Amino acid sequence: MGKLITLGEHIVKNQDKFPYATGELTALLSGIKLASKVVNSEINKAGLVDEIIGQEGQTNIQGEDQQKLDVYANRIFKEALGARAVVCGLASEEEDDYVAYESEVCQNGSYIILIDPLDGSSNIDVNVSIGTIFCVYRRISEPGQPAELNDFLQKGREIVAAGYVVYGSSTMIVMSTGQGVHGYTFDPSIGVFFLSHENLRIPDNGKIYSVNEGNFPFFDENIRNYLKHCKEYDPASNRPYTSRYIGSLVSDFHRNLIKGGIYLYPATSHKPKGKLRLLYECNPMAFLIEQAGGLATDGVQDILDIKPTELHQRCPLILGSKNMVNELKRFLAD
Ligand code: P6P
């Protein structure tokens, strides 16, 4: 008989190991949990209710068409976190600038959150799984004041909690507060997330590589040589590897976390900083992969050591099984 432990119970159980041991983080993660349930419900309707799917008719700061569910998810997470008065500020892919909550109780909050409320949203209308990605820091500005930009420009090493929601064949929250990575699966019949994957560890070795091969002509030579290496026939080194790319970071990450593998979105000639955003995509995923025993680099340094300078800055991302990332690094050193 499995142990029936809910997400909330598991967070409280682990809270004493959390260096800041306050109920605030528990309340914050409870806000994430609630917002995930609400967004999940809307996503599940997306195929049925016309006014949900399709584009909002606006573009976000990235110049990307905002899907209606992007805008909806952003609002739900922003409101759910603002109602818990533990978050003094929020930065989001869908917000041009950071949001400093105005209420006095929020301004006394100890944490700030960065979020991609619905990553991979171009997949919504074709029924491919998508996700929410988030990471949490303690504020560095004075409590009792509005959040400041520097609260959001901390290195990923300072993250106190990070995770993602994958709205897939089942909906899961996978997250870490620095004591390993744990997965919680949603039971829609009772509206509860149950602990389903305790202490997730990514295998040191794998044979899955995830990349948009259509960018091959635009990669630098070292990356092109690595991809050729992945496809060469060499049974002794378990090659050719297997190509798996969904085009939804959360889904590609989740599969590789479970099975082992490497995900790469390198710089290209037309995107010299890559496509993914450092603060609310690369950093949270890098925190998780390191907590699960893997590695994450921009090709030069660990993702978590990059000092951010802008909210929406992009960076190349290579992350996954330790031995696969180290193999790629050898190609980058050539
Ligand atoms: P491409 C989705 O837009 C996203 O941000 C990630 O979820 C995904 O891994 C990547 O971009 C896909 O980008 O250029 O391969 O379509």
Task: Note the main attributes of this structure.
334 residues, 9 helices, alpha+beta, five-stranded mixed β-sheet, binds 6-O-phosphono-alpha-D-fructofuranose, 24% strand, eight-stranded mixed β-sheet, Fructose-1,6-Bisphosphatase, Chain A, domain 1, D-Maltodextrin-Binding Protein, domain 2
Q: Could you give a quick summary of the protein structure above?
A:
The chain has helices at residues 7-15, 23-45, 68-82, 104-107, 149-152, 221-231, 249-259, 278-291, 322-332; strands at residues 55-59, 65-67, 87-92, 99-100, 111-119, 130-138, 161-167, 171-176, 181-187, 192-200, 208-210, 242-243, 262-265, 295-297, 317-320.
Structural notes for this entry:
The protein is an alpha+beta fold and 334 residues long. It folds into 2 domains: 7-199, Fructose-1,6-Bisphosphatase, subunit A, domain 1 (Fructose-1,6-Bisphosphatase, Chain A, domain 1), CATH 3.30.540; 208-332, 3-Layer(aba) Sandwich (D-Maltodextrin-Binding Protein, domain 2), CATH 3.40.190.80. The chain has 9 helices and 15 strands. It has helices spanning 7-15, 23-45, 68-82, 104-107, 149-152, 221-231, 249-259, 278-291, 322-332; strands at residues 55-59, 65-67, 87-92, 99-100, 111-119, 130-138, 161-167, 171-176, 181-187, 192-200, 208-210, 242-243, 262-265, 295-297, 317-320. The strands form 3 sheets. The chain has an 8-stranded mixed β-sheet with strand order 4-3-5-6-7-8-9-10, with helices on both faces. Strands 12-11-13-15-14 form a 5-stranded mixed β-sheet, sandwiched between helices. It has a two-stranded antiparallel ribbon with strand order 1-2. A hairpin with a 4-residue loop joins strand 9 and strand 10 (192-200). The longest helix is centred in the N-terminal third of the chain and has 23 residues, at 23-45. The protein is globular. It starts with 6 loop residues before the first helix and ends with a helix. 6-O-phosphono-alpha-D-fructofuranose (P6P) is lined by residues 119-120, 122, 212, 247-249, 252, 275-276.
